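S2.1 Query sequence (G protein-activated inward rectifier potassium channel 1)
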Amino acid sequence: MSALRRKFGDDYQVVTTSSSGSGLQPQGPGQGPQQQLVPKKKRQRFVDKNGRCNVQHGNLGSETSRYLSDLFTTLVDLKWRWNLFIFILTYTVAWLFMASMWWVIAYTRGDLNKAHVGNYTPCVANVYNFPSAFLFFIETEATIGYGYRYITDKCPEGIILFLFQSILGSIVDAFLIGCMFIKMSQPKKRAETLMFSEHAVISMRDGKLTLMFRVGNLRNSHMVSAQIRCKLLKSRQTPEGEFLPLDQLELDVGFSTGADQLFLVSPLTICHVIDAKSPFYDLSQRSMQTEQFEIVVILEGIVETTEDQDEQITSNIKIMKNFFCNINYSLR
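Output structure tokens follow.
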């Protein structure tokens, strides 16, 4: 059994099966029951190993309109493909709309038919059709200014439209470019270089039974004000009979002593002492291996991203690590 476990790991369990056919089959001399490796049933996690929460909101009804009230945050939280799609779509619609406005002004004034008349002063010079109106808008919006197409002083409605175009362009640029900048500056990939131990261990340390795991930083850039917290997710029933499917309990990892404030220049061992105040105090070694619970480790800090002209720009980072009953129990 131990040899099979070393070979196939803990993702499989050994079960005893009879020979082919249904029911019990007689065994011949020297023939024992056959052993078959069956993969263990995967448990559904509340938080994945990569820190993604497996939570899906349902039965929102009319509450989905609340996402539009905070449109900027909603756009930042979208996936990159949707951000790029909205970015391109917004600029395309805005450009076509403003180019149509310039074409409408030229059409209502008759500039499209009189543009080639020598003594006639149009609203916008050298605008003959919609493509030329679109090129004029792009040249003015992007401040290219080739000088071939330009607005004249004989068109007050064109001057008003030009002011509206400048204000609208500034608002669209500030909103969309700001959204893209915030999304690019989010340090989500920073968690790839913050390593946690694969398993948590319960062992004796300083004469006390302690739950321990390790965390380390692979980069040379330090995390400022790094703080670690642990949450125990476990279902329980209150004395009044209420069932709490995801009750959250705090695991003390040094809050009272300041040990939860980390200086991650080298791998550190995070400890939770199992004393009378610990949720694990009443659990034995066997019950802990069969108990249904989940430990979520949250590491928060500030990452130094750029430094320019004595101005330091920082961004917050939050990493969550999940130990779903991956606890090795050993006593020394």
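The CA atoms of residues 2 and 9 lie 10 Å apart. Confidence is low (pLDDT under 50) at residues 1-29, 306-319.
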